[in-house]
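Entry for the shared binder. Reason: the reviewer on the internal report wants the predicted structure included alongside the sequence.
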Amino acid sequence: MSKPVVALQLYTVRDFAEKDLKGTLLQVKEMGYDAVELAGMYGKPAQELRALLDEAGLNAVSAHVPIQAFEEDLEGTISAYKTLGCKYVGIPWLDHANLPGGEKWPAMKAFLIKVDALCEEAGITLMYHCHAHEFDKLPSGEYILDALFRELPALENEMDSGWVDAVGLCPAEYAKQYAGRVPVIHLKDTDRNAKEDRPVGQGTQDMPAITKAAEESGTKVLVAELDEAVGMTSLEAAKQSRAYLKSLGY
């Protein structure tokens, strides 16, 4: 069983990347990351961004792409992320209206089937990344998130340990529930009591159990992420997260 690749979600260090993208990418590589997950393209064409990533020795293995980007230019958006070398693309947010049970869901479902088919043609796996509201329940008692994946069997699950933990579920068990269908997992460690993000391994989540479940579930990429670093810079939080995952053998 091959170990998952470790990537950094660049949203974590957005405050540095927005000021000095090239320098930030070089620092991310120096920390020991070989891959990143993109959250935007910093106003650069795909080829220019790819050149910066290549120069830093980083692989953009995945990316978060808002649904609006697909709606505005479906083929162009997919082409850009193929140029960047992304194997996985995750939709980071849909509101209740566009999720199962919502009034816009039938149209969104049809559109997502189209997006998924074109992504597959380009060699890209389409995923959905959860937050908390997708764990609201439908009248049937089913989580909206589970209904989403049930109704779209080709859509993959980009689980976020922080959000799964926030709604009172066990991230390790939830990953196992989607074994074979959870190629990318966000490791977003949190202090449950303080309700704050922590570098991976410094929060209240059982990261050894989560990473073990990820391996057993066929996960290919573990993405370290913090929404907000507390008591340190975002770069330091990213560095500490990488060091911890190295201590677990990743």
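Summary line for the report: The chain has one domain: 5-247.
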